[in-house]
Amino acid sequence: MRKDSTITRLAIAAALLAALGGASLYSALPQKIVPAKPFDLRAKTKFKGATAIAELTWRDQSDNELGFEVLRSDDAGKTFKVVGMVGSNTTRHEDKVGKYVSGAYQYQVRAFNEAGKSEPSNVAGAWF
C-alpha cells in the first residue's frame, strides 16, 4: 500500500468521526436489531394413528429473522420449553406431541437472529 493512500484513508476516517460529533466509527455501522415478534399464532389438533399433533400457524412481521423457535407448555403456561425450530419466513410447524396423550398444551413462537430473540407471540392452546 502506498503511504499517501494510507494518509488519505486516515483523513477520511477523521472527517467521518468529526461529522459524527466525535462518535466512534463502530457506532456509525448498522447495528443488529432483534426481530419483531410473530403474531396471530393459532393451533389446531389432529391425530395420525395414535400420535397427537398440534398444527401451528402464525404471521411473520419481521424481515430480519434467521428462524423461529416453537415453545410448548404443559403446565398451564407457567413454563415454556423449545420443542422445534424452523427457518426464516416459515409460518407453520407441526409438533408431534406424542402417542396416547391427553390434556391441554399451550404454544408460543419467537423469532431469532444474531442480535437475540424477539418477544414471544400470543399463546395458542391445543387440547387432546
List keywords for this structure.
2 helices, 8 strands, Immunoglobulin-like, five-stranded antiparallel sheet, 128 residues, three-stranded antiparallel sheet
Protein described:
- The structure is a single chain.
- This protein has two helices and eight strands; from the N terminus they run H-H-E-E-E-E-E-E-E-E.
- Strands 3, 4, 6, 7 and 8 form a five-stranded antiparallel β-sheet that branches.
- A hairpin with a 7-residue loop joins strand 3 (67-73) and strand 4 (81-87).
- The chain folds into two domains: 1-31; 39-127, Sandwich (Immunoglobulin-like), CATH 2.60.40.
- The protein starts with a helix and ends with a strand.
- The protein has helices at 3-19, 25-28; strands at residues 39-48, 51-59, 67-73, 81-87, 92-99, 104-113, 116-117, 124-127.
- 16% of the residues lie in helices and 45% in strands.
- The chain is elongated and about 70 Å long.
- It is α+β, with helices and mostly antiparallel strands.
Task: Spell out the blueprint of helices and strands.
Blueprint (H helix, E strand, L loop, with lengths): L2 H17 L5 H4 L10 E10 L2 E9 L7 E7 L7 E7 L4 E8 L4 E10 L2 E2 L6 E4 L1
Q: How many domain units?
A: 2
Q: What percentage of the residues does DSSP assign to strands (E)? A: 35-45%
CATH topology of the largest domain: Immunoglobulin-like
Let me know the number of strands: 8
Major β-sheet annotation: 5 strands, antiparallel
Shape field: elongated
Query: What's the order of the H and E elements?
Result: HHEEEEEEEE
CATH superfamily of the largest domain: Immunoglobulins
Secondary-structure-derived class: alpha+beta
Note the gap between the termini.
Answer: 69 Å
User: How confident is the prediction overall: mean pLDDT?
Assistant: 88
**Regions with pLDDT < 50 over 5+ consecutive residues?**
none
Radius of gyration: 23 Å
Alpha plus pi helix count: 2
CATH architecture group name of the largest domain: Sandwich
